[in-house]
Amino acid sequence: MAPSSVLAVGFVLALFSLSFSTASAGIVETSFHVKNLTVNRLCQNQVITAANGSLPGPTLRVKEGDTVVVHVFNKSPYNLTIHWHGVFQTLTPWADGPEMVTQCPIRPGGNYTYRFNLSGQVGTLWWHAHSQWLRATVYGALVIRPRDGQKYPFVKPYREDTIILGEWWNANPIDVENAALTTGAAPVNSDAYTINGWPGDLFNSCRPSKIYKLDVVPGKTYLLRIINAALNAQFFFKIANHNLTVVGADAAYTNPFPTDVVVIGPGQTTDVLLTANQSPGLYYMAAHPYASAAGVPFNANTTTAILAYPKAKQSTPLLPVLPAFNDTPTAFRFSSNLTALVTSPFWSPVPKTVDENMLVTIGLGISACGTNQTCGGIFGQRMSANMNNHSFVFPTRMSLLEAAFRNVSGGVYTTDFPDQPPLTFDYTNVNNSFNQSLLMTPKLTSLKKLKFNATVQVVLQNTALIGVENHPMHLHGFNFYVLAQGFGNYDPINHPKNFNLVNPQERNTLGVPVGGWAAIRFRANNPGVWFIHCHLDVHLPWGLATAFYVENGGTPESTLPPPPAGFPQC
Ligand code: C2O
C-alpha cells in the first residue's frame, strides 16, 4: 500500500470515533435507526441492514452508574431486537433483547425503547441484533468508563480505541442462514473477516484506502477495547512487534496479563494496554481464526488494520506471525490464565456453597428431517445442536419471559431442562462421533427454574458427537466465575480440588475447551428469564441453548416489574 493511501484513511477514523454525548448527567439517551444501507466490500456493492447508516454501528459511551435509553426504530425489512451483550439488566429483563426469549421482535416499521441501568461493571461490552443472523451487520461497541471520581486500576491510558472484529458475507446473511435452515445443512462460510468494518489489505478491496488505521504517539500507552462480533469465528489477534497487557475482559477487571496474542471468541471482549514503544514504522494488527473443529472447512483469511507511528519510513506494514489455526495450547493458555482483580470495587467473592449443581453436555447432533423433506445434514437429517440432549426451539406465540411473567407457560415452554445428561456416555470419545443412537436429538423448549439468589454451578461438557469443538458459551443477565477448565471428561471427584475459588475470572462468555469442560458458578440474584447459548450463530438456530428462569425473591427489590409501555407484541 502506498503511504498516500495510508494517509487517506483519516476520515474512517473520524467515522468510528463518533459517539453520543451525555444528554444530562447520568442519562445517556439516543436513537438507533435500523435500515438498509448499501456498502462496498470486496469489490462489490451489498445491501446490508445497519444502525444509523454505519458499519459497525454507533459506539455507545457511558459511565458506570448511568441509565441508558435507546429508541430503536426498525426501518428494515426484518424483525429486529437489540441485545446489550453482557449488561446485567438488573430488574430490566424486558430490555435484554433476545428474540422470543425476553421479547417479541420489533416488526418492520415498529419501534421500542430499551431502558436500563449500567451499574457494577466497567470496561467493554457491546450491543447487537438478536434476531436471526442480523447481528452480522447490526452491532457496535458499548464502552463503560468509571464514574466521576473513580479511576482505572491501571496506568491512565493516553488514548482509548475500539477494535471490533467482524465477519462479512458477499451475500445477505439472512439469506445465507435461511438457505441452510431450509435444507438442514451447514451454512456457507463467510468471505472475509473485518476490523472496524473493513477486511484490510490482504483482501482485494478495490478501495486500497479503506483499512482501519490507528495513529500512535511514540512512548504513549493506549487502551484497546477488542470485541469479537464475528458470527462464527474465534480469533487469534496480534500486533506486529508489540506486546499487550490484558487488564479486563467482558467488562470485569483482570490482573494484568502480559501476552503477545489475544484469543477471543464471538461475544467476548478483551481490554489491553498497548505501549507504542517500537521504532517508528507501520505495524499490522491482524486476526485470523482459531478453528478448533478438526476437518471442518473454514475461511482461513486474515483481516488487518494498521498501527501507524509518525514519520514511518516503510510503506508496507510489518505483519505479525499468528498462531496456527488449530493451536489449542495457545488458546487454552490464554483463556485459562486470566484471573480477576479482587481489589476491584465491583468484585464479589465466589459463593462457597452450591444450591444447584448441573452437568450439561454441549455439542452437535442431528434432528429429524421431517416427512416428505430432503435434508442436507449428516445421515440425511438436519444438523442440530443441544445442551443435555435438548435441542432448543424458540417459542412463536409469546416470549419466554412474558409467558413466565403471565404464568401461561402451557404451550410456550416446559421447566424440565435436566440437571444431568439424560444418558451417561464417554462424552469426548471420538469413537462415538457418528454413533447414530447418540446423535438423534429431540427439539424442545425446556428451561431450568432457579430460586432467587440460588448459587448455581454448571459444568459445561463438550461432546465428540459429530466432532469436538470449542463452543463460546454466553450467559445473559450475569457474569459467571470460571472455576476451572480442562480437556476430556469432567471428573467430579478430582477436578473440584483445583477449582479457583479465590480470584477466578468473571465472564459472560467463555470458550469451553475443545473436547473438554469448564466449571462455572453464578448467583441467580436477578429475576427473569436468562438465555444461555453458544455464541456461534451457526449453532444457535440449531438449538445449542436453554434458559434459566429465575423466580422472584419475595421483596419489591427482587420482583420482576411488568413490561414497559410499548413492549412489542407477537
Ligand atoms: Cu451476544 Cu444471546 O448474545
Architecture overview:
The protein has 570 residues and is mainly β. The chain folds into 3 domains: 3-145, Immunoglobulin-like; 159-336, Immunoglobulin-like (Sandwich), CATH 2.60.40.420; 356-558, Sandwich (Immunoglobulin-like). The protein is built from 6 helices and 32 strands. It has helices spanning 3-7, 10-16, 173-183, 328-337, 400-405, 436-439, and strands spanning 27-41, 44-51, 60-63, 67-74, 82-85, 111-117, 123-129, 139-145, 159-168, 192-195, 213-215, 221-228, 234-239, 244-249, 252-259, 262-264, 269-275, 282-290, 303-308, 356-367, 382-387, 391-392, 443-444, 447-450, 455-462, 471-475, 480-487, 506-507, 509-512, 516-523, 528-534, 545-550. The strands form 7 sheets. A 6-stranded mixed β-sheet has the order 10-9-12-17-14-15, with no helix packed on it. Strands 21-20-25-30-27-28 form a 6-stranded mixed β-sheet, with no helix packed on it. It has a 5-stranded mixed β-sheet with strand order 11-19-18-13-16. It starts with a helix and ends in a 20-residue tail after the last strand. Residues 1-24 have low confidence and may be disordered. It binds CU-O-CU linkage.
> Shape, please?
globular
Quaternary state of the chains? single chain
CATH superfamily of the largest domain: Cupredoxins -  blue copper proteins
For the largest beta sheet, what order do the strands appear in spatially? Answer: 10-9-12-17-14-15
Helix content bin: under 10%
Would you spell out the secondary-structure blueprint of this structure?
Blueprint lengths: L2 H5 L2 H7 L10 E15 L2 E8 L8 E4 L3 E8 L7 E4 L25 E7 L5 E7 L9 E7 L13 E10 L4 H11 L8 E4 L17 E3 L5 E8 L5 E6 L4 E6 L2 E8 L2 E3 L4 E7 L6 E9 L12 E6 L19 H10 L18 E12 L14 E6 L3 E2 L7 H6 L30 H4 L3 E2 L2 E4 L4 E8 L8 E5 L4 E8 L18 E2 L1 E4 L3 E8 L4 E7 L10 E6 L20
Parallel strand pairs: 1-4, 3-8, 9-12, 11-19, 20-25, 22-23, 24-32
Antiparallel strand pairs: 1-2, 4-6, 5-7, 7-8, 9-10, 12-17, 13-16, 13-18, 14-15, 14-17, 18-19, 20-21, 25-30, 26-29, 26-31, 27-28, 27-30, 31-32
The structure holds CU-O-CU linkage.
